């Protein structure tokens, strides 16, 4: 088991089960003192550059929805499962729209009702998370 995230660190979201997941915008470099993830899920329109930790890429263009929803669902389930014992990071370019949408889906997997998941992420991660109406609809329909 990897040491968990520090819940006080920027971007760290505590799910109801106690799992900690860090959301981040890749356009914002990590602080030198920030912990590295052991696993990351990157939600980008293009393949991300290499990193020294294990990661999975889901093709998900900015302000849109995942190109392959079945792949995105499988990736989100994997991230949620791994977050029980690893430092999992979810990231997109800015860290709000796609990342917030993915975090809301993780919250659903963790037991938050779908109709409350966006509010949960906005309250506990970023008040502007989940940026578009279609991202909100994606979360509501995520099961």
Brief account:
The chain is built from four helices and five strands, in the order ββββαβααα. By secondary structure, it is an alpha/beta fold.
What are the SSEs and their pairings?
Layout: E1 12-14, E2 20-25, E3 39-44, E4 54-59, H1 69-82, E5 88-92, H2 97-109, H3 114-124, H4 133-141
Parallel strand pairs: 2-5, 3-4, 3-5
Antiparallel strand pairs: 1-2
Measured distance between first and last alpha carbons: 28 Å
Average pLDDT for all residues: 95
**Assembly level:** single chain
Spans with pLDDT under 50 lasting ≥5 residues? none
Strand percent estimate: 15-25%
Provide a count of the helices: 4
Strands of the widest sheet, in order across it, are: 1-2-5-3-4
Second rung of CATH, namely the architecture: Alpha-Beta Complex
Helix content: 25-40%
Features:
Protein-Tyrosine Phosphatase, Chain A; 143 residues; single chain; alpha/beta
Structure description:
The protein has helices at residues 69-82, 97-109, 114-124, 133-141, and strands at residues 12-14, 20-25, 39-44, 54-59, 88-92. By secondary structure, the chain is of the alpha/beta class. The protein has one domain: Protein tyrosine phosphatase superfamily (Protein-Tyrosine Phosphatase, Chain A, Alpha-Beta Complex). The chain has a five-stranded mixed beta sheet with strand order 1-2-5-3-4, with helices on one face. β1 (12-14) and β2 (20-25) form a beta hairpin. α1 packs across α2 (97-109). The mean pLDDT is 95.
């Amino acid at each position: 088991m990897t040491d968990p995230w520090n819940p006080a660190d920027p971007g760290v979201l505590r799910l109801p089960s106690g799992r900690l997941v860090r959301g981040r915008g890749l356009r914002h470099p990590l602080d030198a003192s920030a912990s590295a993830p052991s696993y990351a899920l990157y939600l980008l329109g293009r393949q991300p550059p290499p990193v020294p930790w294990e990661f999975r890429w889901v093709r998900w263009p900015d302000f849109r929805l995942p190109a392959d929803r079945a792949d995105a669902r499988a990736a989100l389930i994997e991230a949620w499962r791994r977050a029980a014992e690893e430092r999992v990071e979810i990231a997109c370019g800015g860290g709000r729209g796609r990342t917030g949408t993915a975090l809301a889906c993780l919250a659903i997997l963790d037991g938050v009702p779908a109709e409350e998941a966006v509010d949960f992420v906005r309250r506990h991660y970023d008040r502007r998370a989940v940026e578009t109406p279609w991202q909100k609809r994606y979360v509501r329909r995520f099961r």
